[in-house]
Structure formats: C-alpha cells, structure tokens
User: What shape does this take?
Amino acid sequence: MEEFYTNIYQHSKCFLFVTFFRLFQSMNPSFFYRKRGAIRSIPVVSLREAVELVETSNHAQSVTVLPPATGDCMIDSDSEEVPDGVAEDTPFEPAGQMEVNVEASSESESEKEIEESSERRPTKKRKVIHSPKWSRMGTFNQSFTTGVSVKKMADEYPFLIPLSPYQIWKLYFTDTMLQEVAKQTLLYAHREKNDKEFETSDDEIRRFIGIALLSGYHTVPSNRDYWSNQPDLGVQFVSQAMTCGRYRKLAAYLHLADNESLPAGDKTGKVSPLYKNLNENLTQFGIWHDNLSIDESMVPYYGKNSMKQFIRGKPIRFGFKLWALCSSGGYPYHLDIYCGKDSEVVGPLGERVVTKMVDVVEHNSSLNKHHIYFDNFFTSYQLLSALRDRGVCATGTIRENRTAGAHGVLMTSKEMKKKERGYYESVCDGRICIVKWMDNSTVCIASNSLSHEPTHVVRRYVKPNPNHSVIQPHIIHQYNIGMGGVDVMDRLLSSYRPTLRGKKWWWPLFLNIINMSVVAAWKVYHHLHGGHMDHLSFRRDIVMCLMKTDSPTATAVSGGHRVDLPDDVRFDGVGHTATTIPEGRCRVCRKNTKKGCLKCDARLHSDRGKKCFENYHSRF
Assistant: This one.
C-alpha cells in the first residue's frame, strides 16, 4: 500500500512540473532564448520524427519521453515494454510523447530554426469574407447592357409554318430515335431473352407510342381493357392497330440502350441516350424566348429506386426529379434527371444546377438577350453576383440567411406584417438589389439587374374592399411575368399524361419523353398559328398519324358518321386499299357505294370509271 501511494506522488509531481514548465514557457518565451546557448523544446509524437530532427539539427542535446497524460497510477512511466521478437538494439515506439531539446549557438540561428519549425507545421487559413455594404438609397454601380431581343420563330424559320402537327412532332421525336428504340428492342430480345424469332420495325414502334399517347386522354382501368370485347371497355381503334398479345410482348422486350455498354456509375444509363437526343432537339432552333425560368419537375413513380424523391406539398410527391429550363410560357429547353447527392462535387446544389443551365443558354444563344428567374431554393447572393460577372440578368426569391447581411438592414418579417398591404423596403450594394414586400405575407426577392422602381399598382382583396389598389415594386412585377414556366409545362404534361403501366423502373421516364415531345411540338404550333388548334386536338392528330402508319388488318367498316383522318395519313400513299364494305354515301360525290378505303375507313367510288378513290387521296 505504501508503494502504491509513492508511485502516485512521483507521477503527480512529474506531471505538475511539466505542466508548470510549459505554462511558464508560453508566458515568458524570452527566458528560454538567451543570446548564447538558447534551449528550445520541440514536441514530437513518433520516434521517427525524433530521429529525423536529431539528424538534421547540429545542436540537439537530448530526447525526453513525457509521462502519460492520463494520470493512470497503474502505469509505470519509468519502464517500457519491448515487443516480442525485437532485438535489444532495435528502436521501437515509446508509450508516450517525446520532446527534443535543441540548443542554438546564436540568437539568429535560434530564430531561424523557430521559423523553419513553424513552416513545417501546417496552419489552417481562415477564409476572409468581405460582406457587402448595404444602403437603402443605393443604386447599381453599372447598368446591364442587354442585347437585342430575340426574333420570333416565324421570322427565323418560315419553313415551320406549313408543317402539320405530326410533322412538327417528328422534329422532336425523330425517326432516328425511333430506329434506335427498334434496334435496342431487337437486340435485347435476341441476346438477353434468347428469342431469336422476335422481329419488330419502326412502324410497329410508332403504333406502340400511339397507344401510349392515346392512354393519356382515353383511360381505361387496366392495359388489357383496351382489347376487351365488352362494349363499354374495349377500344376498337387500339385493337385494329395491334393485338393484345403483340403489345404485351413488345412492352416486355422494349429497350432504349445496350445493357453491355452502359456508362459506369450512371444511374440513368438506360434512358440517358434518349434524353440526350431530346435535349438536342429542344434547342435545335436556338432559344427564342426572352424570359427563362429554372425549377424542378416531378415524374410520378411509386416503385423502389434510389433516385426516387419525396417532396412534401407538391402535386406529385413521389417520383423522379428533373431540373428543367423553360420559357415563361412553358416551352422546355433542357431537362436533367437528378440522381441524388454526389459526394465528389462541391458547392450548393442550387448554384450548380443554375450554372449548368446557364451554360446551356450560352451554348445556344447570347446570354445578354435573356433574363433568368428561379425560386429561393437556388437563389443566393454569391450566385447572383457570379451571374452578374458573366453578364446574365437573374432574379429570384431569396431566403434571409442567404442575403449576405441584407436582412439585418431590412425590417424584420414580424415587424413588416404589422404594416399595411403594399409596404416595401429596398437595399442595394451596387451589385445586387434586395426588396422586401408585404403582400399576403412578406416576400423577399433579389436581382442583379432589377430594382423596386418604377412601381406598379395592382388589385388585391383588402377588407372590406375586394379591389383595393396596392403598390407593387417593379422587381416583383417582372418576377411574376417571367417565373412559372416550369409550372406551366407540368400542367400541360399532367393534362393528358400517358397512363399505360409498365414493370420497368425507367418506364415512367420513357413515357415522359414522349409526353414532353408532344408538349414542345404543341407550344411551337401554338406560337406559329395562335389558337388554331387546342392541346387535345393536337394530340389526337398525332395519335391518328401514329396508329395509321402502315397497312391495317382487314376489318369490317361499321356504319355511322366518320371523320377524315389527318392529311399526313390521307396523302401518305401507303396501304390505301380499295375493298368492299357495307353500302353508304361516298366521301367525294355523296352518292351511295359499296366500295371504300380500308385504311382511311371511308366509302369511296373506285369502279365504273369514277375517280373518287384517287381524288380523295390526292392533295390537288
């Protein structure tokens, strides 16, 4: 017991001596660095560092092993345990830390060694952040030099005006894409499924896509019900284009990319080639809108996949997230599938998405011709400042913790809610302008090119007046005009979204490509011809052309009023066969006949020297 207390006393005394020695050395370092024979203690951790220090220094005096800092009384600090199988003269790591005592011959040499030792020790540099100086009366240091506004598509591309809806759609979902889908489907069936007898063609893929588009506006409970014999379920138009068995086999073998050539680490490798082609087609006419918006778009999906996202409060909560660049009217320019967090990429996600979309704009147009809008998920002071340096006009709602100190100058949201509707405050540092406005709630918005002037007058409901005049800053007015293009695109996509079900995880993304190509084609057609054709009629025209691409099977023509097929089918010169059908009026001369066209489902005279059949299928 007496030996136990002796060890504690010796251990504590040594520990206190070293502690007070280091404390006194930090308080009065000049005491240890005399002009002659200055002694300096350099702490090291490993034996290897101590040996290197002794060899490189000409004035190393001794190496001291420090006692353990744990204060464990059961450890004998005077002895160390030698590992098994090690010779007596072989050095090994001691149990504790060490110090190398170095004596300098002069003051200059001592200072030199101190500088060298300090250079060896890496020091963490603090990042200097220069906060902007916000001023309530501030203005932009330099106004933006915007370029000439983009020209209308009808002026730049007049050849698009006479094109039919189906021909415009083929500019986005091209024949090359159809051939690639047919090629990969055939390869998958032969190699992966070992079905050597399976064959398909471009026309069959067209009819398959036509059935998918038809399911968007003609919905039945299940896929099989399209081929049902029941009068309230079956769709004769679908059963005439393709049998149920053929559709199911084609859906099972459908493929978009070669499984043996998928890029390593690419989660979207099965659909990325088709999305790449679609993005190229979306920008084939350049970017012909002034106001652009960047936002997220959701493709509904309820299966199990690592890319599936959940966003609370959205119309589509579960599904694949896509970053979209659209015009203010809803025309899509670029789509990028979000694959999840990437640990190798640094920087905020929102800033990286905007930067990538700006690169797309720069590649297809001039940056100073467009104004880009986004919401508070993307906006930050650093992003707007970087876009200003690139000459990009950008505006977006902003969160208070991203304003670089402007929220400290502006009135707090709690105080502003006590103000009347239409009250606003504005600050500017010469590069970025931030405005806080009171509407239903407080709205904070930032821009690198717009300010609160000139103000506008808008109508709002303020009790008891339903049309109360409210002052609205110019930056809010422009944001309401330019933002929301992605929401318009989502509304058009969801209006007639294909409902055919599939078992592949990428099936919703494939249907989204088809749906997106129709929306893009309709926006172009609407831009060229105004309200000549609504969205549903435009889709029906495309479906009619897709389902009637080749010679149909021989089926009886039922009576009743018939509608003419689209001109792209009527005048294509493929599969128009004269046959005998139930008697009815001719489409051309309006007299009764038993002859007609099987493909066009129309009664036409083709005998006794009459040319109703030829005239009906001729443009002139």
Remarks:
- The first helix runs from residue 2 to 27.
- The chain has 20 helices and 17 strands.
